[in-house]
Amino acid sequence: MIHLDLKRCPKGFFFLLLFIFAYTSATAQRPVEIRDDVNQHIFTYQEIELLEDPSGMLSLDQIRQSDQQGHFKASKASTPQTLNLASNYWFKIKIKSNPTAKKHYILEFFDQTIDEISVYMPDAQGAYQEVLLGDQFPFAERRLKHKNFEIPIDNSGEATNIYYIKIKSSQIADAIIVLRSVDFFIAYALNEYLFFGVFYGMILVFSLYNLVLFFSMKQREYLFYVLYILSVGVYEMSTDGIAYQYLWPNNPAFNQIAYAVALCSTSVFALLFTRQLLHLEEKAPTINSIIVGTIALRVLFFFYSMLFDQSLFNFKFLEVVPLSLAFFAGIFVYSKGYQAARFFVLGYSVLFIGFVLKFLIMLGYGWLNFGVVSYYSLSFSFVAEMVLFSFAIADQLRLLKDNINRELESKVAARTQEVSQKSLIIEAKNTELEEMNALLKKQAEDISRMNVLLEMDNQELNTSVEKVTRARVMSAEMDFEEFSRIYPDKETCYQFLADLKWKNGYACRKCKHTQFYPGHTPYSRRCSKCGYEESVTSYSIFHNTRIPINKAFYMVYLIYTTKGKASSHKISEVLDMRQSTCWAYSSRVKTAMDEKKSLLKRSGKQGWSQLILE
User: Fold this and answer.
1) Distance of CA 137 to CAs 115, 134, 244, 247, Å?
2) What pTM does this model have?
C-alpha cells in the first residue's frame, strides 16, 4: 500500500489535488433524489447528459459502453434540443430511489410533437426494459391518456438508477424531462386542461359570434376571420397534443402533418382577412397585389412540401413573411388615415411579439423560456389578437354607421333649433329653481349650526346631571335601586375604586416606582420595575370580602350616611342578604369609622369615599 505523507508533499501538488477533486465534482452528473417534499423537478444542465448518434444505428449496449468511455456530455442549455433531424439523440439521467417516500412518481416528457421516444428503464437485476412513446403511435396505446408522454417509475430500491432515453423526431424537439409525483401531476393536468378549455372556448365563441355576423351582414371579412381563428385553434391543438387526443387519436400519420396544414390555412386566411378588412384593392392596390402573390406562393410551397419533402414543414419561421406583410399593410393603411386599422395594427403587434419570442426560444435562447407565460406566449398573443381584431371589426362597423349618422345630422339640426327655443324657457325655470335651491341650502346650513349648538348644550347638560348624581351619592341618602343605577356592576365599582386609589398618581408600595402596566386581575396595576402587583381592592375596606362589590359599596354608603345607625336587619332586608353576613361586615365598617372619626369630620361630602381607603 502506498502511504502519502501530506506533510512532505509540496504545496503546489496539494492544491493540484484539490483542483482535480473540485473539477471532477463540478463536472460529474448530478443525480436527482426522490423526495416527498419535492413534487416536481425538471432535469437541466448537469442533471442531463446527451450524446448525438448521427448514424442512428447505435444500440443500448453500445451507448452504455460510450457512457463508460465518457462520451456523454452535460447539457450546455437548460433545455437541450434535437437540432439535427437526421440524428438520434441519447439522453442520460440519474434518479436516486427513496423507498421511504409515500408518493408515486412518473417521468414526463413535455414536448408533444416528438415522433419516437425510447426509454430504457433499469430493473432490480440491472437489466433494462424498453418503453416506446411518441406521437407516431396510436393514442390509445398510451398508458396514461394525457397529451404529454408519461412513464411510471420504480422507487422500491435505494440505488441510484441510470435511465437512457433515445429521441427521434422529424421536428426540432425540446428534451424537457420532468420527475413528478402522481398527486402533483393530476392537479397540474386538471389546471392545464382547464386553461385549454378556456382558450379553445374563447376561440369557439369568437368564431360563432363572427359567423352570425357573416350570415346577418353578408360581408366576407367575417367569414375569413372565422376561418382564420379556427385555423389558429387547430394549429394550437396540433402543437400541444390536444388535437391528437380528441380529434384524430387513431390517425398518427395525419398527426405528423396536421400542424403544417393548420399553419398554411392560418397564413392564407389571415392575408385574405387583411385584404377584406382594410379594403386594400381601393386603398393600397400595390400591397394588395403582393398579398395575392404571397397567398399563391404559400399554397404552392405547402403542396410541394407535402408531395416531395415534408421536412420543409419544419421551416416555421417562414410564416414571418405573411405575418410581416399583413402587419405592414395595416400600418400603411392606418398612416393614410383609415382609423379602422388601428386595432388591427395593435393586434398584429402583440402577435408579432409572441411569434418572435417563440421563435427565439425555438432557436435555443433558453433564458427567454422563463415560465408558463413565455412557453404559451403564442397562445396568449393569439387571444389578445382575437380581442383586438374584434375591436377592429367593430371600428369598421362604426365607420359604416358614421355615414348613416351624417345623413341624420341634417334632420336632427332642424329639430334641434325647434327644441332650443323650448330650452330657453326651461333654462329660465331652472334659474329660478337654482335660486330657490341656494336659499334652501343656506337655511339648511343655519339649521345645521343650530343642531351643533344644541348638541353641545345636551352634552353639557348630561355632564351636569352626571356630576349632580354622583354628588348626591356622596352627600345624600339614596335607596339601593337608585344607587345601583350609578354603580350597576362590579366593573363600575372597580373603576370608581381605581380612580379613587390612584387619583394622585401611581406609586409602588414596595419600591415607590411610578411606572406600571395592567396586572392579571381587572383594574390591578403591576410595577414595571419590581413586578409587585396591587389589586384594586388591596388596602381598602373591600379587601378579601366575599360580598358582591356593588352591595358592599352600598353597605358602606348606608352605614356612613346613617352614622352607623343602620341595623344589620335593615341592611339584610334591603340587600337581600343573610343578617349574619350583614352584621359581620357592618361591624367592620363601623370599626373603620371609629378609627377615622377625626378624618371623616374634615372630609365633608367625600366622607364615605375616605372611609373606603385604609
Assistant:
1) 8, 6, 11, 15
2) 0.58
